[in-house]
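Is this the right way to post structure tokens for a design question? Let me know if I should format differently. Anyway, here goes:
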């Protein structure tokens, strides 16, 4: 699987543009399709799980001033500290994240059920020693951001899915955390977001996660076979 962790991106692909937000993939050739996002609220820009790239500051300036950089998955510190320090803002971490602040070389602010005073609500997806993750939901624009438990990169998707549950979470999809939401769009940390008929895509992903798991694992296995 292509995963370029050490090479700074010199260009990026824009994804997920809508009124109030945008996303980008800093290394479009990666199979992992690491996606980053910015959401705007009252001229303030909140950056989520970012991978840095040349031209990013100019790209974000279109939406306003960067106010904070948010990490929503314990493994997604990515380039959060570099971007936060460049804009002289904190890195925001969920209150229950343990050990992550040690990996962030920048000022850290904790948040709970709401991200600062943005109106962006949080939903705890996973909280255990191996995996800590929150989803972000903007009820005003009905925008859902899930950085890892849901994705659209090929290795997330079984046949017939536009949005899939992470292969390691197929047996326990986040139905309790997300099942009551009816979003206009679903943004993800791996791949482009679902920008049309998002409620159907979300319901399909959550309700059929276990049933379609064998299809996904079989697809992954076929890719690993020697040619």
């Amino acid at each position: 699987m292509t995963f370029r962790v050490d090479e700074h991106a010199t260009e990026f692909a824009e994804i997920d543009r809508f009124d109030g937000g945008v996303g980008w993939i800093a290394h479009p050739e990666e199979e992992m399709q690491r996606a980053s996002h910015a959401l705007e609220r009252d001229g303030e820009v909140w950056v989520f799980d970012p991978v840095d790239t040349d031209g990013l500051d100019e790209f974000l300036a279109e939406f306003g001033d960067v106010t904070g950089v948010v990490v929503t998955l314990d493994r997604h510190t990515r380039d959060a500290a570099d971007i936060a320090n460049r804009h002289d803002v904190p890195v925001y971490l969920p209150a229950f994240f343990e050990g992550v602040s040690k990996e962030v070389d920048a000022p850290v602010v904790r948040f709970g059920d709401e991200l600062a005073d943005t109106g962006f609500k949080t939903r705890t997806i996973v909280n255990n020693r191996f995996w800590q993750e929150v989803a972000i939901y903007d009820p005003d624009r009905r925008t859902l951001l899930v950085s890892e438990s849901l994705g659209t990169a090929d290795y997330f998707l079984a046949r017939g899915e536009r949005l899939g549950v992470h292969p390691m979470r197929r047996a326990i999809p986040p139905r309790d955390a997300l099942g009551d939401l009816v979003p206009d769009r679903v943004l993800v940390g791996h791949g482009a977001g679902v920008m049309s008929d998002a409620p159907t895509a979300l319901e399909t992903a959550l309700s059929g996660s276990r049933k379609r798991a064998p299809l996904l694992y079989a697809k992954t296995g076929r890719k690993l076979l020697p040619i």
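Format looks fine. Someone answered above. Worth noting: The chain has a mean pLDDT of 93. Residues 215 and 221 are 10 Å apart (CA to CA).
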